[in-house]
Fold Pyruvate kinase.
Amino acid sequence: MPRSPKCWPSWFGAGVDVFRLNMAHGKVEDYDLIVRDIRQIGRQMQRALGVLVDLAGPKIRLGVLVEDPTECTAGERV
């Protein structure tokens, strides 16, 4: 979402009433400001605006693979 609250009122005219925030990117402090802006604009427009918070899931990172890989077959428990 652009950090430009000036353009948001036009979105409401187009039917937007819920904002989805992808928490996988950015800082909590940034999202705090965005939620405050959404709430303020909602009060000014006398509309209830929703905020959907999409929390970041686990991040799987791969490093250097071992030289002797383990092969798995379907149904096998590892």
